[in-house]
Description:
The chain is of the alpha/beta class. The protein has helices spanning 3-10, 51-71, 92-103, 119-126, 143-162, 179-190, 203-213, 264-272, 280-283, 286-292, 301-309, 311-325, 329-341; strands spanning 14-20, 25-33, 39-40, 43-46, 77-84, 109-110, 171-175, 194-198, 216-217, 230-233, 252-253, 276-277.
Amino acid sequence: MTNIEMIRTYGHEQVAYFNNEKAGLKAIIALHNTNLGPAVGGCRLWPYASEEDALFDVLRLSRGMSHKNAAAGLPLGGAKGVIIADPSEKTEAMFEAFGEAVNTFMGKYYTAEDVNTDTKDADYMLRTTKYVVGRENVSGDPSPFTVIGVYDGIRAVANFMNGSDSLEGLTIAVQGLGKVGLGLAETLHEAGAKLIVCNNSNREAMQYAVDKLGAVEVGKDEIYGVECDIFAPCALGAVVNSKTIPQFKCKAIAGAANNVIYDDAAGQALKDKGILYAPDFIINGGGVINAGQEAFTTYDKEKVLEQVHNIYNVVYRMLEESAKTGKPEGVIATEYAESLIYK
Length: 343
Ligand code: NAD
């Protein structure tokens, strides 16, 4: 498939390549859709093996942002930027040059931090562009809002499963104890859930979870097969796949990670096994609801929280619709988002 055919398949409005040799910038910005408003999506820095890999990633991620922003009820479209570089090559000049690249969209694209980019890098971008959200002194770190949304989504799943959204006594397996996973584990513990956890770095976080939250530690390959009510992936994508599905003993999957389901066949296999699934881009939308507000109005934490708590209702609706139609929850979620974008 040629690049333009690939772009057409994903339905993008615009894809632009940027080269600034002096600043060491090689980047692609993909503007997927602006039907609902200016497009928001972070800037990922990754040492892609090839330009094709970078294009594939930015197309997939930017379409995902259109779905996430629409499903969150935001007046925002979806986009994403990728910088092709090793994290060790990061410079201030690189991000200043990325800011200039963002300016070429004249307000149709707002960037933010993402994998391998942080608030410091966003500050360098702010020297050359005003189109940055998630600023430190405005909406700040999105992770606590992601935790709130994932927690609400998990309660909605519990309600659908058990007729009550109490998590008291439920066993929840949390994969990954990073910014979201650890905060979620704390919140789940406060709600009376029993925890099983794994993490592949940060011994301190693991020790805290075991000592203070009463969590049971398991190995990173063991987590898929543990007996639990809910498996909460908060580390990697594609963890629901042909290798893990036969191992699952959970009743539902609901966590923060992006692109949890490997492909459509995995989504169907999960459904056939009778495991409920809270669609990733709906349950993990708290962070973008928080940061995205900067792109269209004055930041107001109360309004953000109101919208984040609505994740409970949307997740519940997706589960109901899936049960009614027999379609996997991820398919229902995509159809819902696209019905808002292309209405
Ligand atoms: P993070 O990098 O802070 O934490 C990820 C954690 O997962 C780390 O502690 C890491 O050691 C662990 N991990 C990595 N591979 C693992 C493995 N194989 N087994 C067990 N643990 C493993 O990231 P985060 O900000 O907490 O985000 C977690 C996930 O949620 C990511 O997939 C991210 O894309 C997604 N997400 C995050 C936000 C947010 O606001 N931070 C918003 C939406 C989605």
